[in-house]
Design brief:
The protein is an alpha+beta fold. The protein is built from nine helices and nine strands. Helix content is about 40%, strand content about 15%.
Length: about 290
């Protein structure tokens, strides 16, 4: 999600590239190394192209205050063509791990201890877990894999309650909290199902999980967030995730986030960081909840 205040304005990629010709980036201090927004975008595109990763449309925002006009850029690149095998492996592991009532209650307590779940929502998750899908008037987020008592059903009950409950200062803080808590929940449940990490590796070598119709990972739409500043307000950054948040109030979230200050060797270092992150994802890192 791209969120802009009245201090910023939407811009197209063409406007971003024309801006380079009209107002080239300038260094603000002896140690500050500026980079044009379009040049930074080209670095990102080049790293995607090297790995044959498709990308969809993009949208951008530029700062427009009178003193620092266009110095800050924020953007989202939609429909990044990445499929993460371990997302499918983990979902199948969760579906294949049964839990008893005692174990479920243990996970509820652990969810509170890990900061995933406010204690006030304990009963809501328990009720959601026990709810039958045939009840009228209740939204259903489950699939047929959740008919039994397993970790997958617990995760779905948990995420459903996180999406519906809680009090937050703003919509952006709500989305950030849901994303962070969901990630922590997945890590916690993975350790519960697979303390030694062997089961996940075993599942990842079962190619049928990636077949169309049986793949959870292929149902996700990955988005890339990007930002750059030439007024020393924040580092050049990149985020990748299912629902990254890019805001001109400096909120910048995603399952994978990298940042590099505008100092010597900026271009070389940020290029390597982006490439390494993409290679790690393609090798099967877990980035989606």
């Amino acid at each position: 999600m791209l969120m802009l205040s009245s201090e910023s304005t939407l811009a197209s990629e063409d406007q971003l590239r024309k801006l380079r010709e009209r107002n080239p980036a300038t260094n603000k201090s002896r140690t500050h190394v500026a980079i044009d927004h379009a040049d930074y975008l080209d670095i990102v595109y080049d790293e995607l192209d090297k790995r044959n990763i498709q990308r969809g449309s993009a949208q951008f925002g530029l700062s427009k205050s009178s003193r620092e006009e266009n110095e800050c850029m924020f953007g989202l690149i939609d429909d990044i063509g990445i499929t993460i095998p371990s997302v499918d492996a983990r979902s199948h592991m969760f579906k294949g791990t049964p839990i008893s009532d005692k174990e479920r209650h243990h996970l509820l307590v652990r969810s509170v201890e890990y900061g995933v779940l406010p204690s006030t929502q304990l009963m809501s998750v328990e009720e959601e877990y026990l709810r039958e899908g045939s009840e009228v008037g209740t939204p259903l987020l489950r699939d047929h894999h959740s008919d039994g008592d397993n970790v997958w059903r617990y995760l779905q009950a948990l995420t459903h309650c996180l999406q519906r409950g809680g009090k937050f200062k703003s919509e952006s803080s709500r989305l950030e909290a849901i994303s962070r808590r969901t990630q922590i929940a997945n890590q916690m449940l993975q350790r519960y199902c697979d303390p030694n990490g062997e089961r996940l590796k075993e599942y990842m070598h079962q190619g049928q999980f990636l077949q169309e119709g049986d793949s959870v990972a292929s149902s996700y739409r990955y988005v890339m967030g990007i930002r750059n500043s030439n007024n020393m307000k924040f580092a050049a950054g990149l985020s990748i995730g299912v629902a990254p948040l890019v805001c001109d109030n400096l909120m910048f979230t995603g399952e994978v986030v990298i940042a590099r200050r505008h100092t010597t060797n900026l271009v070389t270092d940020i290029t390597k960081m982006i490439g390494s992150s993409l290679d790690e994802l393609l090798a099967g890192s877990i980035i989606a909840g």
